[in-house]
Write a structure and sequence with these properties.
The protein is mainly alpha-helical. It has 21 helices and no strands. Helix 7 packs across helix 9 and helix 11 runs parallel beside helix 16.
Length: 341
């Protein structure tokens, strides 16, 4: 009976869980009456001749979802025998160009490009690696894995293994397998077993069995994991995040904490990430662009609400204070806001 009760509670959550329901809470949605060739013609006209009609470009790119934008790309190629992305890059500049290009890539190619950038050069941005791999669905992970292989001279798995090491490497490679259970059911008996297993692998032994943590965190569905965290607290009177801080260190600790925070609240996780991109003297434009593009069709409505709750200011006000011009205009439109609000 207890198991059934938890299923009912979590199936209600299922309907509004942004981690698993693309478009349900997004600010960018499919355009009704969509005509790819009509949009391709309008974009061509906006870039033809002297000057560029940036407003038309912004209007079209921010009011079509990614599936429709791929149709526009194909229609543009068919009509004008040109790459729409290359045309946009030649007409636009700076961060505005980066947003437009990012919007025209498939989700998989966009993520693959971000992962490649995070690993190129002397250092590796581990925060970006975990941000992407911990927050994508199995299907999205398979697509970005394939895109990475196509665009680069190596597999993503090999790249991750060459750039990382130890338990953090194992965590990333495990996430890359894309084998997470994606239903919404909670197995009460398994949740207790998982909580006890995590306790035995960490707090209750000399040294930590990191593999046990990785297996549970990378395979169980998010609804089940939230129940495991509750069971863990009842068992130990300690939050799972506190155990991670006590038992782990370095990039592995960072990665596990990020995964837990996303499982607990995707909107809060990304609201915090957005805040950090605009904190201090400079703006992390690449991070700002990546998060807004990747969440605009998923849960940006919830992220905006969480941002206001956490920081006492609207996301609109932060973006407006930090960036300007057409770059600001396209970011605000992606977030479901207008520059003149």
């Amino acid at each position: 009976m207890l198991k059934i009760r938890w299923k009912i509670v979590y199936n209600i959550r299922e309907k509004s869980d942004p981690a698993h329901h693309p478009q349900a809470r997004g600010t960018v949605r499919p355009s009704p009456g969509f005509n790819a060739y009509h949009d391709a013609e309008n974009l061509h006209n906006a870039m033809d001749g002297l000057g560029t009609n940036e407003d038309t470009i912004i209007d079209i790119l921010t009011s079509r979802n990614n599936f429709q934008r791929q149709k526009i790309t194909a229609a543009f190629k068919s009509s004008y025998d040109k790459s729409l992305i290359e045309e946009l890059k030649s007409e636009l500049g700076g961060n505005f160009e980066s947003v437009a290009e990012g919007l025209m890539l498939t989700h998989g190619k966009f993520d693959a490009k971000e992962l490649a950038h995070a690993m190129e050069g002397a250092g590796t941005d581990e925060h970006v690696l975990i941000e992407i791999l911990a927050t994508r669905t199995n299907k999205q992970i398979w697509e970005l894995d394939e895109a990475y292989q196509t665009e680069n001279a190596t597999s993503l798995k090999d790249a991750l293994k060459s750039e990382n090491s130890g338990d953090f490497e194992e965590l990333l490679v495990s996430l890359l397998k894309g084998k997470r259970d994606e239903n919404y059911e909670v197995d009460e008996s398994l949740a207790k077993v998982d909580a006890q297993g995590l306790f035995a692998a960490g707090e209750d032994k000399w040294g930590t069995d990191e593999t046990k943590f990785i297996k549970v965190f990378c395979r169980r569905n998010f609804t089940h994991l939230r129940r495991v965290f509750e069971e863990y607290y009842q068992l130990t009177n300690k939050d799972i995040e506190d155990t991670i801080k006590d038992e782990m260190s370095g990039t592995f600790e960072m990665g596990m904490l990020a995964l837990v925070q996303y499982v607990k609240s995707p909107a809060s996780f990304f609201a915090t990430k957005l805040y950090e991109t605009m904190l201090g003297a400079g703006t992390d434009d690449r991070g700002l662009i990546r998060i807004i593009i990747s969440r605009s069709e998923v849960d940006m409505i919830d992220i905006k609400a969480e941002f206001l709750k956490l920081y006492g200011k609207t996301l609109f006000s932060f973006i407006k204070d930090d960036v300007g011009g057409d770059y600001r205009k396209i970011l605000l439109r992606l977030c479901g806001m207008d520059d003149d609000e």
